[in-house]
Amino acid sequence: MSAEYKYDIDNFEVSNDMKKNFDKDGYTLIRNLFSKDEVHKIEKTITEGGMMKHSYMLLGVEELYHYHCKFLIKEPKVGGSFEWHQDYGYWYNYCLSPDMLAVFIAVDECTQENGGLVVLRGTHKCGRVDHGKTGGQQGADIERVELLKKQYELVNVDLQPGDVLFFHCNLLHCSGPNNSEKRRLAINVSYNEKSNSPVKPDICPEYTKLEKVSDTAILECQNYTDFSGKNFIKRGDDKLVDFADQTSSYEKSG
Ligand SMILES: O=C(O)CCC(=O)C(=O)O
Description:
The protein is α+β, with helices and mostly antiparallel strands.
């Protein structure tokens, strides 16, 4: 496992050591980046604020902007595996450089038991692998993944609520099904570099200045239900809709 860091709100900065680890392994794990109270508020916004109707079953150096964000829910016993893939395997269709990053935030415990992440440490250095249909999803070329598995370490990334994994868009990763009794809720936030804005029409936004908020913004926020101004991807036909414009097909039983 790569080095892990623990968040301390009064004394935390991105160190050279963290950057070095990210360059070497393709990811950096920050434990407890979100406190219990923050995680509780995030969870409440997703599960009680009405966002669930937008869910669907799963079948550094430059200025960054928010590319998109998804909440990833694996209900107990419903499966929800992700095939081996690189995020840039898809984003390549719109953005010319792999100068992009994913930030995986555990809202529930995300362990191997309930479909947590598995990464192939260091594979962000291998370039983009071809992606095609695998098991009903877009996944990385299986033959190449099998070869890479012989040379790169497979790491189970088990996260507790509030832990955050920052990972490079070319890092190969996957996750198994949730066969357990525990729900697995996470948020994956992606960032892109300013100069790497999509060059083709994309449902994800072009460069838009990212306004930083304070470290206490989540705790101060009292809005769980107003998503005005936010767009959601419409299930199935890759179109953007606003919050009201989606009929719920979220089924707890899967
Ligand atoms: O939620 C998961 O288990 C994996 C998500 C993932 O790999 C992705 O969103 O790219």
